[in-house]
């Protein structure tokens, strides 16, 4: 099986060979109508080469982005199901309805997260946020089932802030984009 990097390298080499062949044809015809035809062909092939070169980073990141997309989608879906289950447990276990104040926003947040887009620039942040979501959901389950103290609600809120921060679209990619 050929890796994505090898495919990209092969395509890039093909574009370079085409550009080299066109350049050689231009040099053969130093003037006249044939020169204009070959020169136009050289410009066309070179512009395709430049456009392809611009897409290389995105093409290289695509397999990781797809993996992140699967992780993010199924993490959020799974945690939405856990949130719905916790809400059902409030009624099944005859708990206080006040737990719904904590569990309904958790469910709505996880349900909304199911529909987020995973792009090439922020896929690692989204994947990290989706994994951190599991910790937050575990805290929510343990708190609502009274396994741990209600004081851990503060930790869950901090966790939700962290997850939301890593899952939101960032308009300022200056420092972050330079780091990668």
Could you write a compact summary of the structure shown?
The chain has one domain. Helices cover 79% and strands 0% of the residues. The chain has helices at 4-28, 33-92, 99-113, 123-144, 153-167, 174-179.
Can you describe what's shown?
- It is rod-shaped, with a radius of gyration of 27 Å.
- Helix content is 79%, strand content 0%.
- It contains 6 helices and no strands.
- The chain has one domain (4-179).
- Keywords: Membrane, Transmembrane, Transmembrane helix.
Largest sheet: none
Rounded average pLDDT: 81
Number of helices: 6
Tally of structural domains? 1
Structural class comes to: mainly alpha
Runs with pLDDT <50, length 5+?
171-180
**Strand-residue proportion:** under 5%
Distance between the termini: 28 Å
Task: Please tell me how large the radius of gyration is.
Answer: 27 Å
Write the layout of secondary structure elements.
Elements: H1 4-28, H2 33-92, H3 99-113, H4 123-144, H5 153-167, H6 174-179
Which properties best describe this structure?
6 helices; mainly alpha; 0% strand; 180 residues
